[in-house]
């Protein structure tokens, strides 16, 4: 559905993307994870056609939409819906007019617009607030209006940039799973950006980690978690990375048995986390973080055994 081939993007002297390659399958829910400032929004903007790559080629459904030279298909002809990082709703327009906007631009008839807006509003449960303006809506309602506007033309590709960041953390999980079910039902190929690991894992068919200008690893969430490719991805995922006789070992905080094992260390600190405790333990090979279901005393000596570790080769 999407193919990016050797995409590079420079802003003046600053290189943001370099030689990035990726393919996204039809109907896939594809999540881009990565630290702030690594170029996630830049990549989405290139896919949408809002900015142009410095080098490389981009295909949507096999059609060349940008070759960074002469070929350039403008945003409105790409069949792409976009939910922006800050939603970018038009403040002076009602929710209805916001959703109707892309259809008006495409010169749909009033009747067809009404039908399409009502239908998508129904799906997203915002029929009751269609007459309101963005400042009269809650964060969650605003997000739904932004999603409605992005899908009302039934795009072949839906792009969402941190769509849950303005939603109350307590409501986020519910909203997320609802949105996932909706895009799966409509079978819209979706690329979503987040810097929240858990959020990405919970919603993705595949996750791509954007670091150093390219996708360092692309894999289903469980595979990514179990087999990070390299130390920077392992660290970004929150894994412990320690060195051991010149070799590097990564293991997640929940993959450790305490009480016995080959690693001995000293507990530096313990934090209560509701479900259990988190201990920071100083080993010879480095400082590690582990999840525990029983409290240990700071200062105590412990032995540890990682039960699911991977050796890193970078
Ligand atoms: N129009 C622009 N002109 C100059 N520099 C830009 C422009 N847009 C983005 N950048 C720079 O490119 C880099 C990547 O920005 P981008 O917004 O893509 O990051 P991001 O991964 O989306 O970050 P965040 O998670 O904070 O949203 C940043 O260093 C940013 O300052
Ligand atoms: Mg961004």
Automatic annotation (TrEMBL):
Gene3D superfamilies: P-loop containing nucleotide triphosphate hydrolases
Ranges where the ABC transporter domain occurs: 2-237
Record's keyword annotation contains Membrane: yes
One GO MF term: ABC-type ferric iron transporter activity
Stored PROSITE patterns: ABC_TRANSPORTER_1, ABC_TRANSPORTER_2
GO terms under cellular component: ATP-binding cassette (ABC) transporter complex, substrate-binding subunit-containing
Pfam families per record: ABC_tran
SUPFAM superfamilies noted in UniProt: P-loop containing nucleoside triphosphate hydrolases
Keyword annotations from UniProtKB, A to Z: ATP-binding, Cell membrane, Membrane, Nucleotide-binding, Sugar transport, Translocase, Transport
PANTHER family the UniProt entry points to: MALTODEXTRIN IMPORT ATP-BINDING PROTEIN MSMX, TREHALOSE IMPORT ATP-BINDING PROTEIN SUGC
Name this protein carries in UniProt: ABC-type sugar transport systems, ATPase component
